[in-house]
Design goal:
alpha/beta, 5-stranded parallel β-sheet, 11 strands, 42% helix, globular
Length: 235
């Protein structure tokens, strides 16, 4: 169903996760250190990557940081750490999801399935009205979004967004001027079985703004309404 690259130095986790994913029809390619994993991700991009945070030669955060310079493929981070700062840092670097060790294989499969669905790898039901609406191209002032190609531009200049960032911006841009609460945005970007807190949404929005300001320093189309949420302002 999907090509998945797994990068983790724990052989037991590699074996168990690979077996679980392959039992659901996915093809898994595994690497045991960050440097070789990054090289593979750049030369042969998969549909989704699963990265451990703590690894030899290059840790998962550095792999993610370098990967995001050239690629927006879906990424799930694995971590044995239970510190909130690591999760926030990961989202700021562009991670799409996080799973804390130890985790159940069922949880991992559901998270992979959800992220692949969000990325459009598993496809959407064409008769589903919500799916049809989500697939429509959007033009809002200087912003253009093409969900079918996962492409976004600002004033004709390309802006590379991760899967989660694209879905969040799409939710805001579909109804300019209307306020979206953080809960609304969570529903738009994540499946029901995936829980994230308010700060995760804030981290994604902060990263989106930074990307758009790289092509337009005056970008201010995403407004924050403190205590309420966000809205897209069409200029």
């Amino acid at each position: 169903m999907a090509n998945i690259t797994l990068v983790d130095d724990d052989e037991n986790i590699v074996a168990s996760v690979s077996l679980a994913l392959e039992s659901h029809g996915h093809k898994v390619t595994a690497y045991h250190d960050g440097a070789s994993g990054l090289e593979a991700l750049e030369t042969t991009p998969p549909d989704l990557a699963i990265l451990d945070v703590k690894m030899p030669r290059m840790d998962g955060m550095e792999v993610l940081r370098r990967l995001r310079q050239t690629s927006n493929l879906p990424v799930i981070m694995l971590t044995s750490k239970d510190e909130e700062i690591d999760e926030i840092l990961g989202f700021n670097l562009g991670a799409d999801d996080y799973i804390h060790k130890p985790f159940s294989q069922r949880l991992l499969i559901e998270r992979v399935k959800a992220l692949l669905r969000r990325a459009g790898v598993e496809g959407l039901d064409p008769v589903d009205p919500a799916a049809a609406e989500a697939g429509k191209a959007i033009k809002r002032g200087k912003l253009s979004m093409d969900p079918a190609r996962h492409e976004s531009t600002w004033d004709g200049k390309p802006v590379k967004l991760t899967v989660t960032e694209f879905l969040l911006l799409q939710a805001l841009a579909q109804r300019p001027g209307f306020v979206k609460s953080r809960d609304n945005l969570m529903d738009a970007a994540y499946d029901d079985q995936v829980y994230v807190d308010d700060r995760t949404i804030d981290s994604h929005v902060k990263r989106m703004r930074k990307k758009f300001r790289m092509v337009d320093p005056e970008f201010d189309a995403i407004e924050t309404l403190y205590g309420v949420g966000y809205r897209y302002r069409e200029s």
